[in-house]
Write a structure and sequence with these properties.
- By secondary structure, the protein is of the alpha+beta class.
- The protein is 35% helix and 15% strand.
- It has a two-stranded antiparallel ribbon.
- The protein is globular.
- The model has no long low-confidence stretch (mean pLDDT 85).
Length: 130
């Protein structure tokens, strides 16, 4: 039976206007002894870890999807419309290009111990943060 399960381990999208959310995320990484991310929120592990472990035996891989919105063509008058990254603004043409990177990861290559999974997942976000 086909299965799609989508998880956003960071909980919400990174928004530079929400400094309190960013600080809380960075403090969480520091508390765990993990590198602080600059452009992403620190991923929360519990739901992703439990889901991946439950998929073992049913699926053979997960897909890591990264979406980036290109802002190069935002019109000068867009400020009156708001230039937050959102599907609505993408549909309005404010972000005419979207870059999507998809990587297939074999479940056997993903740690099945929560502490190791946390480091592994954080390292994936660290790569995206560069």
């Amino acid at each position: 039976m086909p299965l799609w399960l989508v998880i956003f381990p960071e909980g919400t999208r990174f928004n530079p206007k929400k400094q309190q959310v960013i600080k809380k995320s960075q403090d969480f990484a520091t508390h765990l002894g993990l590198p602080v991310l600059k452009y992403h929120l620190t991923p929360r592990v519990k739901a992703a870890f439990l889901s991946v472990n439950e998929l073992r035996g049913y699926a053979d891989a997960v897909y890591d999807v990264t979406v980036g919105y290109e802002e190069a063509n935002v019109p000068p008058n867009a400020a009156t419309k708001g230039t937050d990254i959102s599907f609505t603004n993408f549909a309005l043409g404010l972000f005419p290009r979207v870059h999507v990177k998809v990587e297939r990861i074999e479940l056997d290559d993903i740690p099945n111990v929560e502490a190791e999974f946390q480091v592994w997942l954080h390292n994936r976000f660290l790569q995206k943060d560069k």
